[in-house]
């Protein structure tokens, strides 16, 4: 047996260390690039799946020793597509799935089935909340780039002409002015109508107050006259009778006429002597 840790090594007479170093580098490069399309990697499952052979449930983010394979097809002729292959932990069934750059997801190929398949949002129902895919993003970027190039070169469409834009802006400003005038006229009309209604209400209120005051005065005058009429029409009140004077004038001169024996009471009734007031 040879020594496990030999100190003295045999070098042939035609040994060239420079050529040996070049040869070792060449072999290492060849071994490295010999099976570039297939490579053993350590990966985690990107989604939960189920094996079709034994119905084994494989959860998401479980680690596997798998293989990575580069496919010939490419997305948009530039993005590479890979196939990832793992083995079922229960029955060693081969399960393969590949990348889907267009939807930023993975597609199951053979050996298993996904437990949950996300659905795309409907463009008609959820157009605002729809997530923009990579294709749409690339198309939008291409359109924006073309528009920038056209603007730099001075090539614009007829709809984007400066005169058309100016006319549209003037028409919009004119329409806004007309709308403002209409609103102002409506506001003035409403103000006039409210003022007119307020004046009518005031005049009606004043007329009602005037009518109330005149009616009150008429009632007061009627009441005063009624009271006066009742006082004058009481029995025993002879205001119309003429009171006899205390002295009666005579045609004779120098004669003194005697007082008449007539007495009056506080009520104004004439009482003659010899008669008693019953």
From TrEMBL:
Residues 131-203 form a coiled coil. Pfam families: Saf4_Yju2 (PF04502). GO terms for molecular function: metal ion binding. This is Splicing factor YJU2. Zn(2+) binds at residues 51, 54, 88, 91. It is found in: Nucleus. Residues 228-278 are annotated as: Disordered. The gene is K7_YJU2. One of its GO terms (cellular component) is U2-type catalytic step 2 spliceosome. Part of the spliceosome which catalyzes two sequential transesterification reactions, first the excision of the non-coding intron from pre-mRNA and then the ligation of the coding exons to form the mature mRNA. Plays a role (via N-terminus) in stabilizing the structure of the spliceosome catalytic core and docking of the branch helix into the active site, producing 5'-exon and lariat intron-3'-intermediates. Further stabilizes spliceosome conformation for 3'-splice site docking (via C-terminus) promoting exon ligation. Belongs to the CWC16 family. YJU2 subfamily. Signal peptide: none annotated. HAMAP family: YJU2 (MF_03226). GO terms for biological process: generation of catalytic spliceosome for first transesterification step; generation of catalytic spliceosome for second transesterification step. Keywords: Coiled coil, Metal-binding, mRNA processing, mRNA splicing, Nucleus, Spliceosome, Zinc. Component of the spliceosome. Present in the activated B complex, the catalytically activated B* complex which catalyzes the branching, the catalytic step 1 C complex catalyzing the exon ligation, and the postcatalytic P complex containing the ligated exons (mRNA) and the excised lariat intron.
């Amino acid at each position: 047996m040879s020594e496990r840790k030999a100190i003295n090594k045999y070098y042939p007479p035609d040994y060239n260390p420079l050529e040996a170093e070049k040869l070792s580098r060449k072999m290492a490069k060849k071994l490295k690039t010999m099976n570039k399309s297939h490579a053993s990697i350590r990966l985690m499952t990107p989604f939960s799946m189920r094996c079709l052979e034994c119905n084994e449930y494989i959860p998401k983010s479980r680690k596997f020793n798998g293989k990575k394979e580069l496919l010939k097809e490419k997305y948009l002729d530039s993005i590479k597509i890979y196939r990832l292959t793992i083995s079922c932990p229960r029955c060693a069934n081969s399960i393969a799935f590949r990348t889907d750059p267009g939807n930023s997801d993975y597609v199951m190929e053979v050996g298993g089935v996904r437990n949950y398949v996300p659905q795309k949002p409907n463009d008609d129902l959820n157009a605002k909340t729809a997530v923009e895919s990579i294709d749409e993003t690339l198309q939008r970027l291409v359109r924006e780039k073309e528009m920038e190039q056209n603007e730099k070169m001075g090539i614009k469409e007829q709809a984007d002409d400066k005169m058309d834009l100016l006319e549209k802006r003037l028409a919009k400003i004119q329409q806004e002015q007309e709308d403002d005038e209409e609103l102002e006229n409506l506001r003035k009309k409403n103000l006039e109508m409210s003022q007119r209604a307020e004046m009518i209400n005031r005049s009606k209120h004043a007329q009602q107050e005037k009518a109330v005051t005149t009616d009150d005065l008429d009632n007061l005058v009627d009441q005063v006259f009624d009271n006066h009429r009742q006082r004058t029409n009481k029995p025993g009140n002879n205001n119309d009778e003429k009171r006899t004077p205390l002295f009666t004038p005579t045609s004779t001169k120098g004669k003194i006429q005697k007082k008449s024996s007539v007495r009056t009471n506080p009520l104004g009734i004439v009482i003659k002597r010899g008669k008693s007031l019953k």
